[in-house]
């Protein structure tokens, strides 16, 4: 592809820039866009492009399956699954709204859209990712009440409570990332951004204050709260399981009441196990991103751009994994999915099928 080479070296402090950063090289593409030189060979770029397309397709199919299953089967339309449904909506938004545009930036090293949409894209990325974290907090609260206070669960956790928590998760996340849209996150580093970024690249930067605060409140605090909650749930669940086991061994478990109690408790424990795995995967996928975003301002934004793209995309892939965790570890969802992809789905009364 024919292109001319433009050398962009920012004003400001030449000595500082020269000692830390090589001169910025920007290619003027055939489209007239001024972007950084390609970092990947054509073969590598094609492989990454295919891998990203596959992850987006898996995201859409998996989350759409969860959304359809909850919308269709009456047995899945229970209070805890309101958060599962909303989480799947957030995850599918990542696959449809965030990932496609980020993919073209990663593969072609150029932002083919407007500068205004670059800021909007960063805003949507931060908003949806924060909303996913808030949903996991809601799910942890639901599991905590269901396992640790089962006698008062129905009284304390109502549809109204769920609606308020969902509103707080979405609206709270929206307000929380307003600084991204207003440009507060780059106050004090504007000159650095101009000296490190070609005019038609869309690179995400955060200053030291917002990167540290963002990681603390978006990742460290929620993960700490959820980890403590699930540790408590695990201890209580083991205690309950031992208690019921002792009752059954003593002959008390022969009554119908205790059998029903055991079955209900087992379902609750299985559901808790599933969301615990989802929480663990979330931490595993997003920890590298938040570690990088905190560290980057303190090392003068020297993080390798390819490494940055990897940790960012790895976090987005989490949204494609969640629905398959539900399908793989939750028997009710697994049975619903089997029916959806079988002849039973088209038979009368399939919505009320026993899962």
UniProtKB/TrEMBL annotation:
Coiled coil: none annotated. GO terms for cellular component: endosome membrane; plasma membrane; synapse. It comes from the Eukaryota. Residues 62-326 form the G-protein coupled receptors family 1 profile domain. Keywords: Cell membrane, Endosome, G-protein coupled receptor, Glycoprotein, Membrane, Receptor, Transducer, Transmembrane, Transmembrane helix. It comes from Petromyzon marinus. Belongs to the G-protein coupled receptor 1 family. InterPro entries: 5HT4_rcpt, GPCR_Rhodpsn, GPCR_Rhodpsn_7TM. It is found in: Cell membrane; Endosome membrane. SMART domains: 7TM_GPCR_Srsx. SUPFAM superfamilies: Family A G protein-coupled receptor-like. This is 5-hydroxytryptamine receptor 4. The keyword Transmembrane helix applies. The gene is LOC116944681. Its main location: membrane. Interacts (via C-terminus 330-346 AA) with GRK5; this interaction is promoted by 5-HT (serotonin). G-protein coupled receptor for 5-hydroxytryptamine (serotonin), a biogenic hormone that functions as a neurotransmitter, a hormone and a mitogen. Ligand binding causes a conformation change that triggers signaling via guanine nucleotide-binding proteins (G proteins) and modulates the activity of downstream effectors. HTR4 is coupled to G(s) G alpha proteins and mediates activation of adenylate cyclase activity. GO terms for biological process: adenylate cyclase-activating adrenergic receptor signaling pathway; chemical synaptic transmission; positive regulation of MAPK cascade; regulation of appetite. The chain crosses the membrane at residues 47-73, 85-103, 162-189, 209-231, 275-294, 306-326. It is a multi-pass membrane protein. One of its GO terms (molecular function) is G protein-coupled serotonin receptor activity.
């Amino acid at each position: 592809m024919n292109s001319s080479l433009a050398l962009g070296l920012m004003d400001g402090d030449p000595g500082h820039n020269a000692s830390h950063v090589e001169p910025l090289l920007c290619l003027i593409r055939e489209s007239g866009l001024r972007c950084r030189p390609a970092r990947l060979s054509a073969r590598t770029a094609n492989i990454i492009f295919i891998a990203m397309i596959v992850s987006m397709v898996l995201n859409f199919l998996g989350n759409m399956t969860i959304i359809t299953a909850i919308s269709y089967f009456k047995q899945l339309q229970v209070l805890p699954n309101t958060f599962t449904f909303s989480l799947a909506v957030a995850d599918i938004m990542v696959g449809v709204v965030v990932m496609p545009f980020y993919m073209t930036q990663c593969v072609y090293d150029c932002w083919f859209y407007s500068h205004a949409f670059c800021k909007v894209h960063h805003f949507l990325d931060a908003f949806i990712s924060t909303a996913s974290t808030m949903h996991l907090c809601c799910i942890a609260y639901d599991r905590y009440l269901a396992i640790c206070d089962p006698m008062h669960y129905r009284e304390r956790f109502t549809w109204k409570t769920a609606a308020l928590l969902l509103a707080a998760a979405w609206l709270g996340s929206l307000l929380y990332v307003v600084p991204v849209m207003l440009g507060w996150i780059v106050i004090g580093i504007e000159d650095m951004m101009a000296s490190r970024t070609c005019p038609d690249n869309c690179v995400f930067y955060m200053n030291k204050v917002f990167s540290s605060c963002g990681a603390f409140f978006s990742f460290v605090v929620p993960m700490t709260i959820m980890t403590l909650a699930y540790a408590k749930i695990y201890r209580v669940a083991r205690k309950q399981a031992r208690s019921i086991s002792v009752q059954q061994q003593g002959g008390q478990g022969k009554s119908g009441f205790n059998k029903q109690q055991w079955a209900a408790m087992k379902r609750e424990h299985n559901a808790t196990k599933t969301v615990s795995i989802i929480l663990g995967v979330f931490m595993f996928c997003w920890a590298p991103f938040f570690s990088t975003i905190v560290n980057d301002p303190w090392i003068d934004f020297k993080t390798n751009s390819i490494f940055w793209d990897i940790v960012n995309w790895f976090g987005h892939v989490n949204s494609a994994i969640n629905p398959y965790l539900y399908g793989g570890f939750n028997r009710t969802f697994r049975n619903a999915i089997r029916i959806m992809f079988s002849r039973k789905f088209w038979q009368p009364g399939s919505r009320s099928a026993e899962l």
